[in-house]
Amino acid sequence: MTRILREHEMARRDMTQEDAKLPRLGEIGLQNFAPYLMNRIMGRYNASLRAELARMGLTTPKMRALAVLSVLDGLTVSELAVYSVVEQSTLSRALDALVAEGLVRRADDPADSRVSRIHVTDAGRAAFEALWPTMARSYARMFHGIPEEERRAFVATLQKILRNVRKHDF
Domain spans of the chain? Predict the structure, then answer.
């Protein structure tokens, strides 16, 4: 028996009666499974930005860092990783490149010199502002044909879901 089959069998035995009542993915269907839909949407959104990012010499992690810092400047690397939804190791490499390109700068935290805070530079802000129209058009396309009231309700629901799954206090 393969390792995967053994693990599956052990997990099946450990399943509680409540777990056994949960619907299977095939019963829900991919088109009704919110995590799948959210991943597809974000994949398409990121793809719609890729050409402009490449033209500007940016990557998705760099763009996300600049976007977050344009709104919440001076975050720690850990905070920025959470807000930009980028693994910390990937973000660290992106930040090294952004620093080298003069788009962000690192500064010691005044309260704890072991902690760095990341600040967007004027050049970084200008780069983000140049990218923003492309991002805004892609965002508007996502909501094409969806009434404003539905969009607000959808975003409010996403905010509730984020609160349900959030692990951080910021």
Answer: 32-142
Among residues 24, 9, 48, 54, the alpha carbon closest in space to that of 141 is found at 48
Structure confidence by residue, pLDDT tens digits, 120-156: 999 999 999 999 999 999 999 999 999 999 999 999 9
Query: Quick check: helix, strand or coil at residue 156?
Result: helix
The reported pTM is 0.83
Give the max Cα distance, the chain. 59
Rg over CA atoms, the chain: 20
Domain 32-142 is in which class? Answer: mainly alpha
Spatial separation of the C-alpha atoms in residues 61 and 58, rounded to whole Å: 8
- What is the 3-state composition of the chain as percent helix, strand, coil, each rounded to the nearest 5? 70, 5, 25
